[in-house]
C-alpha cells in the first residue's frame, strides 16, 4: 500500500477543477438489470438494442466534440469487446480517480458486470501517452473479498480545496473503505450521511444529489435526514454558495453536473439538457456566475443508464505535459 501523505509536501496546491476528462464510448450500452436493483433512475424504453446503442453513441460523440471545442481536453478510452459485456462502461468515473501528484486509483464496484470495466493498467498507459503521466498506481480492489464497495466519484463528491469528501452511504459506499481512501489521499474530513428516497431506499450515488464546484454547491438536501441535513449544509455553506434543488429537479439530474476548466483556465459547467431545463431561471443565473453552462442532450443515456453528464466524465488531475489541446 502507498500513502499519498508521504508525497504531500511535494504536492501542488489542490485545485477544484480538472481541465481534462476521460470518456468511454457506449458501444455495449443497454439497460443493466444488475444495477437497476438499487438505481431508481433507470428506465426501460421501447427501442431495440441497436437503436439504443446508435443513439447513445451519437449523444456521446456530440458531447466529446463540444467539450473539445470549448477547450477541455477529452481522452477517449476505447476498449476491445470481450465475452463479458460492460453495458455501463460509459460511466467511467465510478472505477478510477486521479490526484494532482500523480496517483491513479482503482475502486471496488458493487455490481459484478461493472467490475469488468476496471482496466487500470490500460487506462494508465493511455493517460501517459496523452501527456498525463501516472507516477504511481494504487487500488482498493482487495475490498471486493469483503464484499465492500466504493464507487469512486460516483459515491464521493470531493471538495478538493478543503480536502473534504461528502458521501451518501449505501451498498455502493462502504464507510470503512471510504475512510481508508480518504486517509490514503490525505484528505482531512469525511462527511458521510444517510439518504432516503420516497421509496425508502438510499440514493445509489452521491453525485446524483449533489455537486461541489470551486465556490458553489448544488444539493438536494431534502433526501438527507433532518438530524444530519443541517450539519452537511452548514459544512458546505462555509465557503460555497448553496443552491438547493428539489426532489423533482434531482430526478432530472440537476445534481449530476460538473465544473471544469478549459486549457486556458476558464470555467465551464457541464450538465445535461434535461438538468438545464429543470433549473429555474434564477438558478441558471446563479450557476452562470461560476462558469459557462454547457448543456448536452444525453436523453438516451440518462433514461436507460440512470446516470447523466457528470457520470460520463472521469476527471484527470494528473500532472500535465499538455500546454495546448
Structure characterization notes:
There is one protein chain. The chain is α/β, with parallel strands linked by helices. The chain is built from 10 helices and 15 strands. A 3-stranded mixed β-sheet has the order 2-1-15, with helices on one face. Strand 10, helix 6 and strand 11 form a beta-alpha-beta unit. It is globular. It starts with 19 loop residues before the first strand and ends in a 10-residue tail after the last strand. The N terminus is likely disordered.
Kindly list the characteristics that best describe this protein:
325 residues, alpha/beta, three-stranded mixed beta sheet, 10 helices, disordered N terminus
Briefly note the structural class of the backbone: alpha/beta
Number of strands: 15
What count of helical segments does DSSP give?
10
Shape designation: globular
Distance between the termini: 34 Å
Query: Beta-strand level of the residues, as a percent range?
Result: 15-25%
Topology of helices and strands:
Layout: E1 20-23, H1 49-70, E2 73-76, E3 96-98, E4 103-106, H2 112-115, H3 120-129, E5 136-139, H4 152-155, E6 156-159, E7 164-168, H5 175-185, E8 189-193, E9 210-212, E10 216-219, H6 226-237, E11 241-244, H7 247-251, E12 258-261, E13 267-272, H8 273-278, H9 281-288, E14 292-296, H10 299-305, E15 314-315
Parallel strand pairs: 1-2, 4-5, 7-8, 10-11, 13-14
Antiparallel strand pairs: 1-15, 3-4, 6-7, 9-10, 12-13
